[in-house]
Amino acid sequence: MPTLRLENGIVRVDVLPEAGGGLLRFDWLGDGDIVPIFRPGAVEAALHDPRMLACYPLVPWSNRIGGGRFTFEGHALDVPLTREGEAYPLHGHGWLMPWRVVSQTEASVELAAVVDSGQPFRYSARLRYTLSGNALHVALSVRNEGAPLPFGLGLHPFFPRMPDVRLQAGATGMWQAAPDHLPTVLQAPPAEADFHQLRPLPVGADINHSFEGWDGQARIVWPDRRLSLSMTADTSRYVLYTPTDFDFFCFEPVDHAINAHNLPGLPQDHGLTILGTGQSMDRRYQFTASRSHA
After folding, report:
1. What are the residue ranges spanned by the domains of the chain?
2. Which of 259, 254, 218 is nearest to 238 (CA)?
3. pLDDT tens for residues 178-197?
4. Would you list the DSSP string of 250-273?
5. Quick one: which of 79, 107, 78, 75 has its CA closest to 91?
6. Domain 4-291 grouped into CATH 3.30.1660.10
7. How confident is the model at residue 31 (pLDDT cuts 50, 70, 90)?
8. Residue among 141, 171, 169, 170 at smallest CA distance from 58
9. What's the pTM?
């Protein structure tokens, strides 16, 4: 399926509805150059493996559900694996299925998807990408079509990892993680993962953790490329993934912790939202690019 391009002379995106409703590219065009803001993907690779996209939606949960099950209102609910080769159900269903185009203009496209056999989840989802000036706006929503359950949303963008890239995204806490990446203890971020101030990503150590107490604002700067990106989201959590052996890193604005379905307390305590039958929720994200000398 061909990509859908939105372009306004300052930024552009290529949308690939068939591959998880994701983005294949998000580029800066402001100076007549083409500078990738998200790590660019290729159509065939992304159709085969959505992890090759530049960005994809997370619905109806982010990251892992430990053990492939959780208990809600006294009932133990099994959640099948969403992808072979993974130990636990990962990232929901939205990133693994085709979405259909609902409407499109020169500056915006809206997509929709329906999951009626996502045990135990049944839902419909909407995803809208809009360009405005030098910004990309993303709106993601979900409507519960089944029994009441905890729902969560997020985005999974990939960013180019250059030696000089710097990140600012303050948080009050970081979940320590077991070898299977499930959270164990919430503590203050260690020095190498404290991004209250703009700083480089750690060298020689991977971060793959869930952060809490975020103010919904972040900044990425690539000094050599004279490019900066400001992000906002109506969430108070993010997941940061910085694999040292790859040319990308992921900063994922999400509304709940990893394995929030199984952490002590109620699902709502860890960011999930209980949706009754027919109830909806939405999240909004903004990515604003600019030339920078920082």
Report:
1. 4-291
2. 254
3. 999 999 999 999 999 999 99
4. EEEEESS-TTTTTSSS-GGGGT-E
5. 79
6. no
7. confident
8. 141
9. 0.96
